[in-house]
Design a protein that fits this description.
Elements lengths: L7 E9 H4 L8 E5 L8 E2 L2 E4 L4 E9 L7 E5 L11 E2 L3 E2 L19 E5 L4 E6 L6 E7 L9 E6 L3 E4 L7 E10 L2 E2 L3 E8 L3 E5 L5 E3 L3 E8 L5 E7 L2 E10 L4 E5 L7 E10 L6 E3 L4 E4 L3 E2 L5 E2 L5 E6 L5 E7 L6 E7 L4 E6 L9 E5 L2
Parallel strand pairs: 9-16, 18-25
Antiparallel strand pairs: 1-5, 2-3, 2-6, 4-5, 7-10, 8-10, 10-13, 11-12, 11-14, 14-15, 14-16, 17-19, 19-22, 20-21, 20-23, 23-24, 23-25, 26-28, 27-28, 28-31, 29-30, 29-32
């Protein structure tokens, strides 16, 4: 607001809540400062008329150099409530602070996480509501009668610990502190174990198709990169990836240079220590998409339908049938010999038309 030759005056000022678009003006307070752009906004006694939808405030305005000040509208601040912090998964520290990790995984209740005994340990949590600071403790006993780490005041929502002993279990707890007081303890645990790599997928029994993309998955607690190799019949077949970041997943498109077969495994190993590795627990299959052998479809004399199936590398194929292309039912799981088989539809004799789908397995 601007003024000319006015030192001060008293005024009742009305603000149209509708024009401002306030959804809930009943709990709004008008705040005022006497000079635009500087100074503190102070709350003024504010009334609201629900009929006229006007916010009203009466005050003395003091002019300063052509300036009568400015107003803002404020809702009441939320009260500080010390909610229990949300624990994240405990991990081996790999040089990335937890606050740089997008979407840290929430810890499961009652789970003791395994971490590499040779690396620092990253313990992190997420605030719920307002957190002014945290208190954090680590102990070797569940009742925390003695603490190995006791941080009374911490503003960061993580802690990296370097003094854990091998093959040991530890308990940790953290609480939130704010103007409303302090929360209860959120309690978790972790155990130190030897460095390890474990294949998750494919880990035996899967059927993967040539030409398609799959995420190879594993878990580990190591800091270094990993190598991924393909084995056939227990012998090295080809390298899939070398010295890649150990993120737990790698997308692999199976090329047509890979021969179909049912005796494949993958090995994931440390890039700095090849002995630190894991192999699929069982064989998986690499196949081509199953097809109906061209020209093999035949209607037998009794009305049944018969056709040949080809699926190199597969040991069996599932045949599904439909009369309308919308509802499908499994007709038979057909065993293959050398990637081939003949299927006979015994139920087709009474059907005018029948549609088929093939899948592996």
């Amino acid at each position: 607001m601007d003024e000319i030759a006015i030192d001060s005056f008293g005024a009742t000022i009305n603000f149209d809540a509708s024009s401002f678009g306030f959804a809930t003006p009943t709990n709004l307070t008008v705040n005022y400062r006497s000079q635009s752009g500087q100074g503190l906004f102070l709350p003024q006694t504010t009334s609201y008329n629900p009929v006229t939808r006007l916010l009203s405030v009466t005050l003395a305005l003091t002019g300063q150099g052509g300036d009568l000040g400015e107003f803002i509208f404020c809702y009441p601040d939320l009260a500080d409530v010390p909610f229990l912090p949300i624990l994240n998964v405990v991990e081996s520290y790999r040089g990335i602070q937890p606050f740089n990790v997008i979407g840290p995984a929430m810890a499961a209740t009652g789970v003791t996480y395994s971490v590499n005994e040779q690396l620092p340990i990253s313990v992190s949590w997420s605030p719920k509501g307002f957190a002014r600071s945290y208190q954090f403790q680590i102990s070797s006993n569940q009742n925390f009668s003695a603490t190995l780490v006791d941080v009374a005041y911490q503003t960061q929502a993580y802690y990296v610990w370097t003094n854990a002993a091998p093959n040991s279990t530890y308990f940790y707890r953290v609480k939130t502190l704010n103007e409303g007081g302090e929360s209860d303890w959120a309690v978790g645990s972790f155990s130190t174990v030897s460095p390890a790599v474990s294949v998750i997928f494919p880990n035996g029994g899967e059927a993967l198709k040539r030409g398609l993309k799959y995420f190879l998955r594993w878990s580990d607690n190591i800091a270094e990169n990993v190598n991924i190799d393909l084995y056939k019949g227990g012998a090295f077949s080809k390298n899939i990836a070398t010295n890649i970041t150990s993120s737990g997943a790698y997308q692999w498109q199976i090329g047509f240079d890979v021969i179909p077969g049912s005796d494949y495994t993958i090995r994931i190993s440390s890039s700095t220590n090849s002995a630190l590795s894991d192999l699929s627990d069982g064989n998986f299959t690499i196949v081509d998409a199953p097809t109906v052998v061209p020209g093999s479809i035949t209607r037998l004399g009794d009305g049944r339908v018969q056709f040949g199936i080809s699926a190199p590398g597969a040991s069996q194929v599932t045949v599904l049938g439909s009369t309308d292309l919308s509802a499908w039912q499994v007709l038979q799981t057909v065993p293959l010999t050398g990637g081939s088989a003949v299927f006979t539809d015994d139920a087709a004799s009474n059907l005018v038309q029948h549609f088929y789908r093939l899948r592996v397995p």
